Amino acid sequence: MTNVSFSKKKNRIRESIDVGGITPFTTIDYPGQLAAVLFLQGCPWRCHYCHNSELIRRRAAPGLPWSSAVKFLQQRKGLIDAVVFSGGEPTLQSGLGMAVRQVKRMGFKIGLHTAGTYPDRLEKLLPLIDWVGLDIKASVQQYSDITGIKNSGERAWRSARLIVESNLDYEVRTTIHPRLIDRGKLFNLVTELVDLQVENYVIQECVPTHCLNSGFRVIEQFPLDETDIRNIAQNFTNFELRMAG
Ligand code: SF4
Questions:
Q1: In Å, what is the CA distance from 110 to each residue of 36, 96, 189?
Q2: What is the dihedral of CA 153, 177, 45, 24, to 10 degrees?
Q3: What is the CA 93 to chain-centroid distance, rounded?
Q4: Is the entire prediction scored with pTM above 0.85?
Q5: DSSP label at 234?
Q6: 133, 173 Cβ separation under 8 angstroms
């Protein structure tokens, strides 16, 4: 009886997880941990600066079977500490909870990269997760200018609140493409993050060469100077600036 139900569960994972690719070893995708990254296929948003455009369509390319991903992770036991579910938007996939549980049982810590697209799903997942990297792209009202999707801001900010109110380790990060977020908008955003009591904040410069929207593949002046960065940093317990290149 047990065997039958386990096999059904494995089948459900296989049917509902689309793995688009794997990074076998990274030190930068889960702070302080040696990790592998599973890139899950599919995202409902269309950010102008998305640099993983090949992962946006759910079944754009023949992905890696879930069983192969599991086999790979079994071989990484003892070599890495954590597995990060990234994308695309990993919470798009209905099998994510089961997949996370399976990987957790293998002894790995679990990291999640998300844009906060599905706050209800995220809320259910949070008890299984050890660390979250959440993209907050802009103030609520400016979100659709970046994602192309109405009400995306409400979803992302609801996810931010869930994460901040949980006891999880997390970072909130904002990608800067000067055409989409200027200095004034960024300072407004920082004020809103402080009001939300975000403690760990990262600003990362966009690498424009692979932007989904080819009109955004231009390098423009980064809108912040050193004084701006210092002024922003003092609002957070932990702050990091990640410049491209
Ligand atoms: S939310 Fe992330 S994966 Fe989805 S389109 Fe935007 S940048 Fe790309």
A1: 10, 12, 28
A2: -120
A3: 14
A4: yes
A5: T
A6: yes
- Per-residue pLDDT in tens (0 to 9) along the chain, 245 residues: 333 344 555 555 555 788 999 999 999 999 999 999 999 999 999 999 998 888 888 776 678 899 999 999 999 999 999 999 999 999 999 999 999 999 999 999 999 999 999 999 999 999 999 999 999 999 999 999 999 999 999 999 999 999 999 989 999 999 999 999 999 999 999 999 999 999 999 999 998 888 999 999 987 899 999 999 999 999 999 999 999 87
User: What is the Å distance from ligand 1's center to 11 Cα?
Assistant: 28
Q: Which two tokens stand for residue 196?
A: 């939300």
Q: Per DSSP, which regions of 145-209 are E strands? A: 169-176, 200-205
State whether the beta carbon of 92 lies less than 6 angstroms from ligand 1: no
Q: Is residue 52 lining ligand 1, measured as CB closer than 6 Å? A: yes
Domains of the chain: 2-242 (3.20.20.70)
Q: Is the CB of residue 56 below 6 angstroms from any atom belonging to ligand 1?
A: yes
Supply the DSSP string of 12-64, one letter for each residue. Answer: HHHHH--EEEEEEEESSSSTTS-EEEEEE---S---TT-S-GGGTSTTSS--B
Which amino acid is it at 109?
A: K
